[in-house]
Amino acid sequence: METLWQDLKYGARMLAKSPGFTLAAVVMLALAIGANSAIFSVVHSVLLERLPYKDPERIVMVWEQRPKEGNFENVVSPADYLDWRAQNQVFEYMAAYTTQSVDVIGAGEPEAVFAGVATADFFQVLGVQPQLGRLFQPGDDVEGNHRVVVLSDGLWKRKYGGDPSIVGRKVNLSGRDHEVIGVTREDFRLAYPAELWAPFPFPQQFSLARGAHFLLVYARLKPGVALQQAHAGMATLSAQIEQQNLPVNEGHAAKVVPIREQLTSAVRPMLLVLFGAVGFVVLIACANVANLLLARGAARQREVSIRSALGAGRRRIIRQLLAENLLLSFAAGGIGVLLALWSTDAMKLIIPRDVATIGLQDFSINAPVLWFTLGLSVATSLLFGLLPAFQATRLNLSDALKAGARTATSTRARKRLRGALVVAEVGLSVVLLAGAGLMIRTLLELYSVSPGFRTENLLTAGMVVPRSRYPDNAQVVQFYQNALARVRGIPGVESAAAVSHLPLSGQDSRTGVAPDGTERRPGEPPRRMHHRNVSAGYFETMGIPLLEGRLLNEFDTADSMPVMVINEAAAKRFWGTQSAVGRFVIIGGQVEVRREVVGVVGNTRHWGLGREVNPEMYIPMTQQPTPFMTLVVRTAGEPVGFAGAVREQIRALDSQLPIAAPQTGDALIAQSESQRSFFLTLMAAFAGIALALAGLGIYAVMAYNVTQRRQEFGVRLALGAQRSDIRAMVLGEGARLALVGVVLGTGGALALTHLLKNLLYEVTPTDPLTFTAVPVVLALVALAACVLPARRASKTDPMVALRYE
């Protein structure tokens, strides 16, 4: 230990004597270590940290799947859930859960929040404990006992100031009083989150409801039951239920998903790609520092020789050099932690909402991350230090002790090693740049996709009319008609309408249909359409084109013939090239309705710009009212400026009705691809760091080579060489190194970019444009890095160089 302390003190003195080298090495390593620590904090929070449940490995979600329809995670019908719960042999508990919007009234401004409505054993499945009060208990989901509520920690603090006496108080939710029985812990998290939870009283008729699918199902495996057993058990059970309930359950099966996988499946591939990317950044930084150490080792050759002559063994000298490297890494690690703290704060500001809901916003520089940083610092000190240390101790003692002597063998060996390191970092940079380039190309392709509606000058605002104050369908319709009339009267508003499921929102509903005049072929999956309820003027306001027939209008009322408009995808799906107008469609549900198709409109994107278009039907709001609607407003100017006026008009109708934050059409587009944009931003940042480090590496090697070959250049110039020849020689050497690195890196990129396949849209992993642009960018960076050393070489004074040494 004493020897190590001596080595560290001596190493600190040596590093202090070379402040330029020390600063350069620490900065490069700090960038790489900081980036790794920041991304590891995210990876640890999302993929590695223990979930805040009891025995989380036993918690699963159970989905309905319909393989023939390409649907592998569908919500469950109440009747199927009740059969699963009663007949399964693999789960200890099974709970049903759904979310809905409720209005929190009487605690400041009215606010619409997502509420989780669940059966009484929901929290028992998860195995969590409350922060205050209690959670659900048996009997809470019985009609008459269900007016109780559990608050989330966030809502409790935001709306009620974290009042510890909240338990037992009444809170107004959508016009009805509920008793607060508990508050969840701060770390409580769900795959489908909410801000409060209320019991779900199952009415008796739910045992027959197999056509309506809206339940999420959580379950806890019995002790000793493996996941494979659960898969097999539910497969057998769902097959039995299918045969007992044909044709409603035709093609239905069950799928069991571990809760960790459910929470992280959307972001896991991107996180792993990012973690691999910052690993490449570390390797590039280590190659750069190793190059600096090789140059420094040549300058310290005489020092090492004297120590060897005085009796120091090779192992002792290597240990001394590694101690110096350890100091560099620890200094870089300390700065890297500070950079990671700043980076994580910056990432939290730009993280998209759909990513933040899974808990990704909770990442921080905690103890596991600090241990990771420490381990990474030690690893980098070995990674960049071993080769230079071995190289520095490989010398001919008698030659090295001669003043100014340099053996040709050691010079050539160092040059080859330095060149190899440059080739390696250029190659790694190519891989990173290719990945970032493919993601950029994907985003550009997505933004070139038409969403099917006009986004400019469009404002949207969602709301839910509470049934407690508007119990009758006619009242719901009247409210929205009054709201639209008021909004249309705002100066500068060109048109306004309402829709139940806004395009690009991801909110959806679909129903089984039976189109007239068509027959279902053997083996064809059940026929379904995604339905949207709309007001008159919706298509005109959104700019969705009419392709055939007519649009819905104010004459389509509750008393008129049931009608519908379908999109182009539905028309082609069911009637091919024949006209769909005038056809009839029987729509399933609790009561079947036969509707006439009066028009066909263009397709709109619903789940994202890169997702396929589904068959959709649009039903008049007056004929099928729904309490949840989104106002869409077309304005004459910048839509954000109209948000306040729209809100005022709704408040004038109902001062207690919360209104979702207004959103522009352009924001809808950005939000639909926010997850890709977030990860692309990080990927591009790491690729930029890699490119800068690669440029610095090429510059360092070429600058050192010029210094080492000063005498050679002087001789060449004295013998008649032109200064342009010297510049060309230096530029050519740099170009050769870069070319070899680009070739090897391109091969590596072609082998690795297939891992991005599922993240790309309309771009192949071997995209020619990307694999043409990346080498050009690297070539320009390499050229720029070689220009200054080449210019310095060409300005060598022959007389001074010939007297050199």
Can you describe this structure?
This protein is α+β, with helices and mostly antiparallel strands. It has 4 domains: 1-90 and 223-275 and 297-398, no CATH class; 96-120 and 129-201 and 214-221, no CATH class; 406-451 and 672-805, no CATH class; 470-655, no CATH class. The protein has 24 helices and 22 strands. Strands 3-4-9-6-8-7 form a 6-stranded mixed β-barrel. Strand 18 and strand 19 form a beta hairpin. The model is unreliable at 403-409 (pLDDT under 50).
The major β-sheet equals: 6 strands, mixed, barrel
Q: What is the overall silhouette?
A: elongated
Estimated share of beta-strand residues: 15-25%
Show unreliable segments.
Answer: 403-409
Q: How many DSSP helices?
A: 24
Distance between the termini: 42 Å
- Total domain modules: 4
Number of strands: 22
- The pLDDT mean sits at 83
Helix content bin: 40-55%
Structural class estimated from helices and strands: alpha+beta
Order of strands, main sheet, comes to 3-4-9-6-8-7
What radius of gyration results from the CA coordinates?
34 Å
Keywords for this entry:
22 strands; 24 helices; alpha+beta; elongated; 6-stranded mixed barrel; 805 residues; 4 domains; 6-stranded mixed beta barrel
Layout of secondary structure:
Elements (H helix, E strand, L loop, with lengths): L1 H16 L1 H30 L10 E8 L4 E4 L3 H10 L3 E15 L5 E8 L3 H5 L3 E4 L14 E4 L1 H8 L9 E4 L2 E9 L11 E4 L16 E6 L5 H18 L8 E6 H6 L3 H32 L1 H9 L4 H37 L2 H4 L10 H26 L4 H4 L7 H40 L10 E7 L8 H16 L4 E7 L10 E6 L12 E7 L3 H5 L3 E4 L13 E5 H8 L8 E4 L5 E9 L14 E5 L7 E8 L7 H11 L9 E2 H8 L1 H35 L1 H9 L4 H30 L15 H27 L3 H5 L3
Parallel strand pairs: 4-9, 6-8, 15-20, 17-19
Antiparallel strand pairs: 1-2, 1-10, 1-11, 3-4, 3-7, 3-10, 5-8, 6-9, 7-8, 12-21, 12-22, 13-21, 14-15, 14-18, 16-19, 17-20, 18-19
Helix pairs in contact: 1-10, 2-8, 2-10, 2-12, 3-6, 8-12, 8-14, 8-20, 10-12, 14-20, 14-22, 14-23, 15-18, 20-23, 22-23
